[in-house]
Amino acid sequence: MTRRTFAVALIVCLVTAAAIHAGTVFNMKCQAKRAKDAGTGKTARPCGYESQVTFGGGMFFDQICGYCRVCKKFVYLNWTRANIPQEMKARMRIKVTPRPKPLGEVWDSRTGKVLTIHACPHCKGPFLEIKKRDELKHCPACNKPHFVVDESKPRIAVD
Ligand SMILES: [Zn+2]
Ligand SMILES: [Zn+2]
User: Considering the entire predicted model, what is its pTM?
Assistant: First the structure.
């Protein structure tokens, strides 16, 4: 293989990897309707909480997402992908960020799943990773199961 074909092969390889790993930014909004308070009889204002949420990383970095209850926002941890060749790192001047160590694991007795807890990059408090959009159903503001993608807004791919 010549140097040139090697370079081309490398780029094709990385672009393919990026296409698989590329993240997506979703504009999400709580669709909970107005609800009448049984006690007071007053109609509460609809929640309407909205936020951009990004799932997945980019070509050179991997990223996880979660919601921090202390910071009251979606938070992210990212690190440099492990499979980037040294030559590429030097050429693209990539500053290597190591994968952050999780705070720990908890076992969920209801589902039998082991959940990994990470430290919030801002307050260092615990947050649970949200792996994909399907795992984000409840609104972080009102806790109702109506947190969906706002289809009136565009989805953005990141790399
Ligand atoms: Zn936080
Ligand atoms: Zn809500």
Answer: 0.78
